[in-house]
Amino acid sequence: MNVQLVICYIENCIFSAGVGKTSLILTLVSEEFPDDVPAKAEEITIPADVTPERVPTHIVDYSCK
Asked: Domain count of the chain?
């Protein structure tokens, strides 16, 4: 089993730019809130051995911009 999360920007939607999607991703992987947040995070894979469910998780921060 694999888990893939795609965090995306949809114009005029609740997921629009500036709401903190990238901040949430970076905070999840670093366990601290970043001071400088890029426009988009690189793709991140969390290996199965560090998750309680033992499932690898692939996170994609996506923006149409």
From this structure: 1
Q: How many C-alpha atoms does 48 have within 13 Å on its Cβ side? A: 6
Distance CA 27, CA 52 (A): 18
Kindly state the tokens that stand for 17: 């730019």
Buried b (16+ CB within 10 A) or exposed e, 22-34: beebbeeeeeeee
Q: Which domain holds residue 30?
A: 3-62
- The C-alpha atoms of residue 13 and residue 3 are separated, in whole angstroms, by 24
What digits encode the pLDDT tens for the residues 11-58?
655 555 677 888 888 998 898 988 888 888 899 998 999 888 898 888
Q: How distant is the alpha carbon of residue 45 from its chain centre?
A: 10
